C-alpha cells in the first residue's frame, strides 16, 4: 500500500518509520540465535503475504462481487480512508495513555497548515487508490498484477523526465520484459474474452500515480517531520474531504442511498475489515523491511504476486492458456530482475563511496 491504507492494493514505496510497538535494535543489542531470527523472518513474511493477499480478495468482493451488488467504488475507497484516519488517531491517543516505550506511535493532532502542505500529495494519493480499486473492479484478481504492472516502467520514465536520472541497460531490459508481459497479457485476456479496456486504462493510471506518489512523498515528508504515520493521517484525512464532493457528483451517492444491504451489519463489518487491512498493510510492510531489507521486501512482494495469481485462478476455478501464464512470468521475472539489478547497483555505489572527511584513515591522518 502506498502510504497509508486507503484500501488500495499498492504497497509502501518508502520504508516506513519504526513500526508501532517495535523497539529500536540498538548498537549494543545482542544478535538473537539463527533459529529465532529465521522463525521471526518467516513469521513476518507470512503475515505480510496474508495481509496483502486477503486485502486484494476482500476489495474485489466489495468492488465487484455479483452477490453483493454494490457499484460504488468511490464510497468504498472513502470509507477505507476514514477507517485509516480513525485508527491513526486512536493509536496516537492510546500511545499517550500507555507507559513510555509500551506503544511507539507519534502524537497526532490536526494542523491545517500541515494539511495544506500535504494536499498536492493527497491529490495524487486519491488518484492512486481510486484507480487501483477501479482496476480491481474491472479485471480479475488473477490479472490484477499484470494490469497494474507498469509502475516500474513509470519509475524509470519519471526519474529521467523529472530528476534527469539515467537507467542502466540491464534495468531497461528488465523493463522491456515487463512491458512485453503486459501486452501479451492483454492479448491473452482478449483471446479468452475477459479483457476489460476500462480495467487496463485504470491499471495504467494507477501505475502512473504510484510512481508520482513516491516522488511527492519525498517532497512532503519534511512537512510532517519525516513521520510516515503522520503523513498517513493527513493523506487519508485530506482524501476523505476531497472524496465527499466526488461521491455527491458521481452515481455512488444514489447507489448507496438505494443499496438494499445498507443496514446490514455484515456489510459494514466487511467494509470496516477492509479498512483495517488497508491500514495494516503499511504496518506489516514496515515489519518486513525491518527484519529483512528493502531488497528482500521487493523480492517477497514479487513472489507474493505470483502466489496471489495462482490462488485467484484456483479460487475462481479459471482455466488459463500457456501464453497467459507466460505473460505473468514475464512481468514477475522482469520485476524481479529489475529489483536485483538495482540492488547490485546500489551496493556498488555504496562500495565506491569515499570515506567521510572527518573519518581518519588507518595511518591516523
TrEMBL record:
Molecular function per GO: antiporter activity; GDP-fucose transmembrane transporter activity
Alphabetical UniProt keywords: Membrane, Transmembrane, Transmembrane helix
Subcellular location: Membrane
Main location: membrane
GO cellular component assignments: Golgi apparatus; Golgi membrane
Record flagged with keyword Disulfide bond: no
Region (Disordered) location: 1-26
Pfam families named in the record: TPT
Domain of life: Eukaryota
Membrane topology of this protein: Multi-pass membrane protein
Domain called Sugar phosphate transporter: residue spans: 40-338
Spans traversing the lipid bilayer: 41-62, 74-97, 117-135, 142-163, 169-186, 195-216, 236-254, 266-285, 322-341
Example of a GO biological process term: GDP-L-fucose salvage
Signal peptide location: none
Keyword Transmembrane helix recorded: yes
Function: Putative transporter.
PANTHER family: SOLUTE CARRIER FAMILY 35
Family note: Belongs to the TPT transporter family. SLC35E subfamily.
Protein name: Solute carrier family 35 member C1
Gene that encodes the chain: SLC35C1
